[in-house]
TrEMBL record:
Annotated organism of origin: Flaviflexus ciconiae
Protein name as it appears in the record: ATP-dependent Clp protease proteolytic subunit
GO BP of this protein: protein quality control for misfolded or incompletely synthesized proteins
Region (Disordered): 205-234
Pfam families documented for this protein: CLP_protease
UniProt cross-references to Gene3D superfamilies, sorted A to Z: 2-enoyl-CoA Hydratase, Chain A, domain 1
Domain of life, source organism: Bacteria
Keyword set, alphabetical order: Cytoplasm, Hydrolase, Protease, Serine protease
Regions of compositional bias (Basic and acidic residues) in chain numbering: 215-234
Length: 390
């Protein structure tokens, strides 16, 4: 099943197909962008209406309206499915900006890409010209950000590159980081639009393009040279080599020992039954048997429990002494135990400062004489305590 969206002006065409339950949409941009009757809103509306798992964007365009190119690029970036861009013939100017939307950018065999600063027309006085310069700088900065986001580097570095028109063959675009791979499929003809509007009529007429040697902070502009692989090889430190040399009993200096020599010495040490490679522990470290370690840990646990028991007993004795001295009521015993556990020094100082005898040890009016009979207690309550006989 297929469905085609074809605008009044045919500078782009969208085809949506479904096969095997997976839908694929194709967008062809095969003419100048945005100038001749089809506005960007129409493109945006139709792209946002696409519902597909995959979007294949094919480009063969000399570019056109810079703002239209940036807008279409951003709309395609927001596409929910995977986006693959294929440069069938040429992606120049604004068309190269659109190409940067792809999750993968493929340069078809024989295709070309061109980047440059934004340009425009202006009629008016010096003030109007100044406004145009400012506007063009803003647009070019935005485009430079797009290239930097794809290939590395900074806005300023790509602006410097864009000041002179840069043409890339398929392989050169990949080397520069502006594309991911070159496809060996049937090439399309270079766009039939006139190339005379540019400084150079295609890559064959242009000088060697800019090739970043590295990316990001080490980004360097030097035309004609590809990016260099700056990845450092993993190396073994001299300290580690010396340690291995000593343990293997090698007498040669580290600088004179090759990897093969290290491996040969290691093989010899492992193959000799009576030869042992001793383990060297860091200074201050000792080996200990597992059983001994477990016993030490058990003893430490028991010691902590004994210490906690002693501290608990000491707190209880301190609080009980305060109760006996009449400093605190028995009902507050648990409170003071918790206070001492939380803050031994602070709570202990408060407890020590209390005056003894503040709390009566027996209820007022109650005689605790164990020999007193019930009749004696009644008599004392009515007439006062009887005097004991001498």
């Amino acid at each position: 099943m297929s469905k085609t969206y074809r605008p009044n002006n045919d500078w782009f065409q969208i085809t949506n197909t479904t096969e095997g339950g997976r839908s694929t949409a194709r967008l062809d941009i095969y003419d100048e962008i945005g100038y001749w009757g089809t506005d960007t809103q129409t493109v945006a509306r139709q792209l946002r209406g696409l519902e597909a798992d995959q979007l294949d964007v094919h480009i063969n365009s000399n570019g056109g309206d810079a703002f239209a190119g940036i807008a279409i690029m951003n709309i395609l970036r927001d596409f929910p499915g995977d986006v693959t861009v294929t440069i069938d013939g040429i992606a120049a100017s604004a068309a190269s900006v659109i190409a940067m939307c792809g999750d993968k950018i493929v340069m078809n065999r024989g295709s070309q890409m061109m980047i440059h600063d934004a340009s425009g027309f202006c009629y008016g006085d010096a003030a109007e010209m100044a406004k145009m310069i400012e506007s063009l700088d803003v647009v070019s900065d935005s485009i430079a950000d797009v290239y930097a986001g794809r290939a590395g580097g900074t806005r300023e570095q790509w602006r410097e590159v864009m000041k002179s028109e840069q043409w890339y063959r398929a392989e050169e675009a990949v080397t520069a980081g502006l594309a991911d791979e070159v496809a060996d499929s049937e090439e399309a003809e270079i766009s039939n639009q006139r190339l005379m509007i540019f400084n150079h009529a295609g890559r064959d007429e242009a000088p060697a393009p800019f090739m970043p040697q590295t990316t990001h902070e080490d980004f360097q502009a030097e035309p004609g040279k590809p990016k260099e692989n700056t990845r450092k090889e993993d190396t073994m430190s001299d300290a580690l080599k010396n340690g291995i040399r000593e343990r293997l009993g090698m007498t040669a200096q580290v600088a004179d020992i090759t990897d093969d020599m290290f491996l040969a010495a290691l093989d010899e040490a492992l193959n000799e039954g009576d030869t042992k490679v001793e383990a060297h522990l860091p200074e201050g470290t000792s080996l200990i048997e597992t059983a001994v370690l477990e016993q030490i840990q058990a003893d430490a646990t028991a010691g902590r429990a004994a210490l906690e028991a002693q501290e608990t007993a000491a707190r209880e004795a301190r609080v009980d002494a305060a109760v006996k001295a009449g400093k605190i009521p028995p009902a507050r015993r648990e409170h003071w135990l918790n206070a001492l556990k939380a803050d031994e020094e602070g709570a202990g100082a408060v407890l020590d400062s209390l005056e003894p005898g503040l709390i009566p040890l027996a209820a007022v009016g109650v005689d605790h004489d164990p020999e007193m009979t019930e009749d004696d207690k009644t008599y004392n309550a009515l007439f006062g305590e009887k005097k004991k006989e001498a």
